[in-house]
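My main concern about presentation is that the manuscript never shows what a single data entry looks like. The format is easy to grasp once an entry is in front of the reader. For illustration, here is how one protein appears when written out as sequence plus structure tokens:
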Amino acid sequence: MSLVIDPPIRQEREYTVTPPALRPAAPARSAWRQGWLRKSLILLLLAALWEAIARWQNNDLLLPTFLQTAQAFLQGITSGELLDRVRVSLTVLLQGYAAGILAAFALTALAASTRIGRDLLETLTAMFNPLPAIALLPLALLWFGLGKASLLFVIVHAVLWPLAVGAYAGFQSVPDTLRMAGRNYGLSGLRFVLHILVPAALPSILSGLKIGWAFAWRTLIAAELVFGTTAGQGGLGWYIFQNRNELYTDKVFAGLAAVILIGLFIDNVVFRPLETLTIRRWGMQR
């Protein structure tokens, strides 16, 4: 006769777990998490260091103080002179930048679609990508004369090759699964590039756009420093060069500050929101 031993019955009880009260973060710690605040503090520290070095050196001709530069910058803004120079430079820059983007996209789309296009892109980038755009300025002056066409030529060269290299590298990294899915839907040629390759290679394309923008901006300023005026109007680079000749060092630094501020504005107001709305939103970049 076998004995059956029943397991003991445990009484069930309900427990109410109260989560611990979350302590609000300290105001200083919460504010420190804001990226714009940290960057603003860095800029303030750099300005204070600049002011201290300039006062220690005590030579306005070589290095004006930060306050003198800020005053010259505000005077250029209120008089409209600095704004006019910025407008001239940005107008030429946007035209050359757009033309460089179109040329890079056409060349990269051809390389992604045909073997001849791929060989052409690899050959041209190996030839012209290491060549500084400003080195082509004498040739541009010989071909197009003293005018906007010469500036556009060197800007397109500055934008075309880094953007084409970045976009093509992004196209090469697209998984075969996506390529096969696009072909199964009957996509080919330009439609295949637009609907499959471009979305998948978007991080590399945006990186190429940022690099191309930086190259174009500094190439334009350097070209304006060399021959400056376009149709009788000088840009920001010519503003810097002209004030250097007249020994207005504070205005020279004001022009350089305008170059830096425009670069910060484009990076934080144009490219950063674009990255947030696209590749970061889709989890393609941290």
The chain has a mean pLDDT of 80. Residues 51 and 66 are 5 Å apart (CA to CA). Residues 66-277 form a domain with the MetI-like fold fold (CATH 1.10.3720.10).
